[in-house]
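User: Reviewer 2 asked us to show a designed sequence for the structure in our supplementary figure. I'm pasting the structure tokens here. Could you produce the per-position amino acids so we can include them in the response letter?
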């Protein structure tokens, strides 16, 4: 092996180790100034009003992400996220000693995989002029930061660029194959890359994609087309249905995100950053569990640089005034309350790696069409998160599901272990391994996420007292003259009635 190759490998391994030791815990709080302008206040856990950037540091974060729009005022959005606004927020981040990730959208408004609208002022330019203008825009913003003594640690040249940037100039051409489809996009992306390095040679330049599974089809052709990249950025938004799923098709699964991040690092020799994540603001208890799980998985990966929560300071109610023009609803994956306090969804960003669950008051056993309540499980006194109750199984192999109404979570069994409870989308229904219909005791332990059942030996509910003759009915209400052994009947004696198995 040549000496230069050995040195390169040493440098790469050293950088990976340093990234692992310096795991970034951050948030994109680009709405901060806009929210403040509309009167929003932020408070710590004690209710004391404080600056949002100060609060981020108090919560254990060591970095912020700030997006840049080209000319949002001309677009109609206002001054938010333009060069001046970004400078103001970057100064506040620096004052708190927070690392900074600058996210160039190369648009006047939000860019994402399906929307990479060219800035209004760039329309009508030829491809070479757009490349020069993109580089100039990048240089102007970064030079303004440098003049303030602010040096970003990372810079994204584009936001969620799965389909390219600055349409139509840098759109990936899906009518072509291999590296040819990436040629125009790579040229524009490289113009941004080179501009970053001119101002901040040590900044890590990120190519940012939506979905952790995308790197495998994206980077071979992008790199073959000459695309330059220092770090891979992903957006990963776990959902209540898929976050702990092991199904390979579950793109919102933490399990699969871990696999994809590991494979990206191994296949391309590039560190990875989760530039965006978030969870439903109305499910803070589950969000805490999901984020702790995500942190545990990512921190254990050599080469994973960190995690950024996207706009956690929102509450699912506030939204930019401009959204009214678009008919958009408020962003639903923040992590703050309406009175401006952080929720436990952000605990992992402060280093907390144990879940303190908020257990529901009860659990419901429902039919598999989610409509009929079959039984209720109540907490067992003296325990935490353990519930029990009885269910009458009227037919062999009867399936059912369990519902946490307080947190709005449907549970089934883990496809890989039927004794383990799962809320993932690929979960199976619950069932009891017995062909004998009868009454069973069900126990659910949410602290360990397991369940069990036992046959209720005293399921024959004999009606005591009285000399009145008994009447027997099947479960549809029809009178039965001679009960059959092993069947469940309604037994009526005088004014009393009960279920009884013969």
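Assistant: Here is a per-position design you can include in the supplement:
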């Amino acid at each position: 092996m040549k000496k230069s190759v050995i040195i390169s490998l040493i440098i790469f391994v050293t950088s990976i180790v340093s990234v692992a030791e310096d795991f970034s815990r951050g948030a994109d709080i680009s709405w901060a100034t806009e929210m403040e302008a509309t009167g929003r206040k932020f408070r710590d856990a004690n209710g004391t009003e404080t600056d949002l950037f100060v609060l981020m540091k108090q919560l254990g974060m060591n970095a912020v992400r700030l997006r840049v729009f080209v000319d949002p005022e001309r677009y109609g959005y206002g001054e938010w996220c333009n060069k001046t606004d970004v400078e103001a927020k970057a100064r506040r981040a620096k004052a708190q000693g927070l690392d900074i990730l600058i996210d160039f959208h190369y648009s006047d408004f939000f860019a994402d995989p399906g929307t990479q609208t060219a800035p209004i002022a760039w329309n009508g330019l030829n491809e070479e002029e757009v490349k020069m203008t993109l580089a100039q825009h990048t240089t102007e913003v970064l030079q303004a930061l440098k003049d303030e003594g602010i040096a970003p640690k990372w810079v994204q040249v584009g936001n969620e660029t799965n389909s390219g940037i600055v349409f139509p100039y840098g759109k990936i051409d899906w009518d072509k194959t291999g590296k040819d489809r990436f040629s125009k996009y790579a040229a524009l992306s490289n113009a941004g890359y080179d501009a970053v390095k001119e101002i901040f040679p040590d900044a890590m330049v990120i190519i940012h994609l939506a979905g952790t599974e995308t790197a495998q089809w994206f980077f071979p052709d992008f790199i073959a087309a000459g695309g330059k990249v220092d770090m891979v950025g992903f957006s990963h938004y776990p959902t209540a249905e898929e976050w702990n799923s092991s199904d390979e098709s579950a793109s919102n699964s933490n399990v699969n995100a871990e696999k994809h991040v590991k494979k990206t690092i191994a296949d391309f020799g590039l560190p990875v950053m989760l530039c965006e994540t978030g969870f439903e603001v109305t499910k803070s208890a589950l969000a805490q569990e999901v984020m702790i799980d995500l942190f545990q998985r990512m921190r254990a990966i050599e080469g994973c640089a960190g995690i950024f929560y996207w706009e956690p300071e929102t509450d699912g109610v506030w939204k930019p005034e401009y959204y009214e023009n678009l008919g958009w609803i408020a962003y639903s994956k923040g992590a703050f309350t309406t009175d401006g306090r952080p929720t436990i969804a952000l605990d992992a960003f402060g280093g907390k790696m144990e879940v303190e669950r908020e257990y529901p008051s009860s659990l419901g056993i429902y039919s598999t069409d989610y409509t009929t309540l079959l039984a209720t499980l109540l907490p067992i006194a003296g325990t935490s998160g353990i519930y029990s109750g009885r269910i009458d199984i009227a037919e062999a192999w009867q399936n059912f599901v369990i519902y946490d109404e307080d947190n709005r979570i449907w549970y089934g069994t883990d496809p890989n272990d039927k004794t383990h409870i799962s809320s993932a989308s690929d979960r199976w229904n619950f069932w009891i391994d017995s062909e004998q219909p009868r009454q069973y005791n069900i126990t659910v332990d949410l602290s360990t996420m397991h369940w069990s059942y036992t046959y209720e030996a005293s399921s024959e509910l004999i009606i005591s007292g009285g000399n009145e003759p008994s009447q027997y009915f099947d479960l549809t209400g029809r009178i039965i003259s001679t009960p059959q052994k092993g069947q469940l009947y309604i037994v009526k004696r005088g004014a009393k009635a009960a279920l009884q198995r013969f």
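For the response letter, you might also mention the following. The chain has eleven helices and 24 strands. Confidence is low (pLDDT under 50) at residues 1-21, 458-466.
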